[in-house]
Amino acid sequence: MKILVTILSAIALYNGTCVGQAALNFPQDFESGDIQVVLKFFNSYLNEFKDTAQPDYKRYFTKQDCEKYKVPDFIVFGINATYPTYKMGKPTILYIRPENNMYHIKTFFGNPATNNISVLCVTDHYVKYQNDSSLRFVNSLDVNAATFKTQTVSNITYHYPAAHSFNIGRADDLITSVRKLEAQWKLPPHHIDYYFTDTDEELKKLRGFDYCLDISNKNKPMGIAASDSLIFCSGLGEDYFHEVVHAYLNSLFPNSPLKEGLAVLYGGSMGHDLYWHYVRLRTYLAQHPGISTDTLSYIDDETNPQSILKGIICANAFKKEGIAGLKKLMGYTNMEDILKSGYKTEPADWARIFQME
User: What is the pTM of this model?
Assistant: First the structure.
């Protein structure tokens, strides 16, 4: 996707240099004593990302949130799954104001030092005094999903907007797919909290983004598995199998570069199955001979070529050797070894996988 290019550019440009003291949009708005205390707390949190990949969340979030969520801040990896949002852009706090016994912090992350202001994201954080007078962040779900309904179907607990009419048929379809996955991989059921909305913009707001650069002008299904017990998704309602596959299988192969390919094999991508994307990608490559597929990151807003290529590799392994072949494949830790072993080719010549099926 072209958004991926923008994200990678932001990572390359800033490379962690943005964390530190946040700028203030109008400094005079932050002079009162209570606002200064909240500001110091927030700046301390941002500074934690300067020297470490992640902070000690127990210093900033409640004990309950830290026990429930591996990463209780859903903004940290809300844009890139492995690189913290707070390292991607320079922060400017727009305001800090009291709101419902909390303090609401709205922050702009981007690059104002260009001819056109480049906006990475605008975030909403909430801070509250605890019984011991310490400050802690309020989990974004406690604020933004306060009016959501819940319904449990088998081992999946759905959380969804109150205006949504729950579709039990789609939920049953998901459970059927999950049971088949468990049987193939010989895995027991485990509980998953499944948050979903109709649009990606609604999903981003749920997680704490007022705006994010990967909110497309075309509403496509989107999702992310925050952990093996928590997923967020939009656009497919109760049956977003792709992210559930991540929740079940990612932890089995933490160092594999093909985790996305495995999810695409089982659950498709952006609402379409692997074969649908395969036909589109093969047509594109035929129309663009000689293209370097290792750097091909964008065709259009329907098909992510890197994800689909990895899905095809997983599909070929499954076709040849079943689950045993997939397990062997997922044991590799880099694409170079995978391509040399399975296709006798180099990463720059991924297109050969279409000729060797």
Answer: 0.89
